[in-house]
Amino acid sequence: MLSLVPTPIGNIGDISLRAIEALREADILLCEDTRITKKLIHILKERYNSTFKENQEFISLHSHNEQAFVEKLEPSFFEQKVVYVSDAGMPGISDPGQTLVRYCIENGVAYDVLPGANAVLTAFVASGFIETQMLFFGFLDHKGSSREQQLQEAMYNGYTTVLYESPHRLEKLLREISKIDASRELFVAKELTKKYQKYLHGTALEILTQLNCNYKGEWAVVIRAGTAHAASAVSEKDILALDLPKKVQAKLISKITGENTKSCYQRLLEK
Q1: How far apart, in whole angstroms, are the C-alpha atoms of residue 89 and residue 7?
Q2: 3-state SS, one letter per residue, for the chain
Q3: Residue segments in the chain with a per-residue pLDDT below the cut of 70
Q4: Same domain, 36 and 95
Q5: Other CB atoms within 10 A of residue 230 CB
Q6: Do residues 181 and 264 share a domain?
Q7: What is the pLDDT of residue 258?
Q8: Where residue 160 sits, what CATH number does that domain have?
Q9: Which pTM value belongs to this model?
């Protein structure tokens, strides 16, 4: 049997009794990083006086080898008690895990998913945005037109939207959001459940001012729902390829995305 077991996203006290039991009884531990999982188990042994099964096998299973690993699997592998844990949080949410679940479904292997801590729902609830329908985008592409397109979708899908962002790209993200909609309300959360957890509300520029160039830590960004705009067959890239004045291009882009025309024009000038 396979069990997907969530681990704390910061505060060790958030681990559940069921999670500890699953880790204790596992024959094989599939780990996003075996070093982190071994450290977690050491802490559990020390803090909760837990006794773990002897001779547990630790196997590295991360985003770079997940597909190749699953392709070599035989259903008999799961005749043992197999547990998968990512470094922190719920497996399968911006972490490996879903490929394993798909394998179990397709091969008739019993599996279970334990509930537990994850940054998406924690940030969503902490935002205080009353729009209860939510979309999760994870990490956007680092650069290029695909990042621009994803951010436009995040801003104008009509739902409260949660993103993850790294410390060295948080400033870039906030400035990009400000150019698209300077008045949009945001919530950003730093180091959720950890010692230096911090909540910030405001527009992108207001949050930049509050941060004062201190971007260290892991970040969840919640974008308050804006007006939804239907997907268009014509993309911004298509419009930019036309030999048109930038003011005209900005008007057309605003029509298909909902972005403010003036901010769109300014963004095009800076390209």
Answers
A1: 5
A2: CEEECCECCCCHHHCCHHHHHHHHHCCEEEECCHHHHHHHHHHHHHHHCCCCCCCCEEEECCCCCHHHHHHCCCHHHHHCCEEEECCCECCCCCCCCHHHHHHHHHHCCCEEECCCCCHHHHHHHHHCCCCCCEEEEEECCCCHHHHHHHHHHHHCCCCEEEEEECCCCHHHHHHHHHHHCCCCCEEEEECCCCCCCEEEEECHHHHHHHHCCCCCCCEEEEECCCCCCCCCCCCHHHHHCCCCCHHHHHHHHHHHHCCCHHHHHHHHHCC
A3: 229-233
A4: yes
A5: 8
A6: no
A7: 72
A8: 3.30.950.10
A9: 0.81
Residue that terminates a domain, selected from 71, 95, 113: 113
User: Do 136 and 51 lie in a common domain?
Assistant: no
Per the structure, the count of domains in the chain is 3
148-153 long-range contacts (CB < 8 A, ≥24 apart) are 148/236, 149/235, 149/236, 149/237, 151/176, 151/177, 151/180, 152/180, 152/236, 152/257, 152/259
Q: How far apart are CA 162 and CA 70, in angstroms?
A: 29
Q: Does residue 204 sit in the same domain as residue 246?
A: no
The parent domain of residue 25 ranges over 2-113
CA distance between the termini of the chain: 53
pLDDT (tens digit per residue) in 92-132: 998 899 999 999 999 999 999 999 999 999 999 999 999 88
Q: What is the pLDDT, as a whole number, of residue 229? A: 67
CA torsion sign, 235 to 239 to 241 to 247? Answer: negative
Question: In this structure, are 219 and 125 located in the same domain?
Answer: yes
